[in-house]
Specification:
Layout (H helix, E strand, L loop, with lengths): L17 H15 L20 H9 L4 H8 L9
Length: about 80
């Protein structure tokens, strides 16, 4: 699926942030994951309230509204399968 050019709700441009988002998330995950035991993903942990890597990257890119975040997170990257 292609990334939409604008957010469906607020109209902010989101397509220009897709490639930097993917690159930064992959870089952070590769930097963070060095051991096979580190691959356990713990999304809901009541002891810590740290943001996920994706949340931090979206903050850096200026995607603060949840409607714009949904446009990025809800996109499925299928171009390699086509």
């Amino acid at each position: 699926m292609l990334i939409p050019v604008r957010c469906f709700t607020c109209g902010k441009t989101v397509s220009d942030k897709w490639i930097p988002f993917i690159r930064k998330v992959n870089d952070e995950k590769n930097k963070e994951t060095t051991n096979i035991k580190d691959l356990d993903i713990d999304y809901i942990n009541l002891e810590t309230t740290d943001k996920s890597i994706e949340g931090k990257v979206m903050d850096e890119l200026g995607l603060h509204r949840y409607c714009c975040r949904r446009m990025i997170l809800g996109n499925v990257h299928l171009i390699t399968n086509i």
